[in-house]
Design goal:
- The longest helix has 14 residues, at 131-144.
- The chain has a seven-stranded parallel sheet with strand order 1-2-3-4-5-6-7, with helices on one face.
- The two termini are 17 Å apart.
- The protein has helices at residues 34-42, 62-71, 131-144, 146-149, 163-173, 183-188, and strands spanning 6-9, 48-52, 75-80, 94-98, 123-128, 152-156, 178-179.
- It is α/β, with parallel strands linked by helices and 194 residues long.
- It is globular.
- It has one domain: TIM Barrel (Alpha-Beta Barrel).
């Protein structure tokens, strides 16, 4: 968070989280070649690129795009729902993997096998919409020893969970996770493109 980045948002997602804040990415957009995406990224003076969605891994050319970005000397991260296999992602890419909480309605689609593939350069992100989500996430952190694998971030669901309340729960419990806000929303709201 806070690092100037080019966001490449791929269209489509097989999930339908109840509190999804990027439903506009379910369809639409414009078809682009990988070369066209690289040209668009070059217009910005940063070397950091975040490929996100929707669910980027649902796109058949996502893995090739990640390789092309790495080959072009970008520092690349992939934001993924955690429902699809991350095993084929280029080792140079930092993977930011969601664990869907009960309020999302998508816990049955968590691909728990992804946890064994995580390294210290990857991250887990858990969106918290209420106290039940928080308690569930704490239990999963302990059960799977998540903070030993990679950094874990708790983020309040935009418009549903008070950021202050979540931060207070984390402080009281001394949980081994980081607190995260969606900085781009703090600055620009929920703009689709900039």
């Amino acid at each position: 968070m806070g690092l100037p980045s080019v966001f490449i948002r791929l269209t489509g997602c097989p999930l339908r989280c109840r509190w999804c804040d990027t439903a506009y990415a379910f369809s639409g957009g414009e078809n682009m070649t990988i070369a066209g995406i690289l040209d668009a990224a070059r217009r910005w003076p940063t070397r950091h690129v975040c490929v996100t969605g929707g669910e980027p891994l649902a796109q058949k050319h996502c893995l090739a795009l990640l390789v092309a970005l790495c080959d072009a000397d970008y520092e690349v991260c992939l934001e993924t729902s955690g429902a699809l296999d991350i095993g084929g992602v280029d080792a140079r890419v930092a993977r930011i993997v969601d664990i869907k909480t009960p309020s999302s309605g998508e816990t049955d689609n968590i691909r728990w096998e992804n946890l064994a593939l995580l390294t210290a350069k990857d991250e887990l992100k858990i969106i918290i919409a209420d106290r039940a989500d928080y308690d569930w996430a704490r239990a999963k952190m302990a059960q799977h020893r998540l903070s030993v694998r990679c950094p874990v971030f708790f983020s309040p669901a935009h418009g549903l969970q008070s950021a202050v309340e979540l931060a207070e729960w984390m402080l009281v419990d001394g949980i081994d996770a980081r607190f995260q806000l969606q900085l781009h929303k703090q600055l620009w709201g929920n703009l689709q493109a900039r």
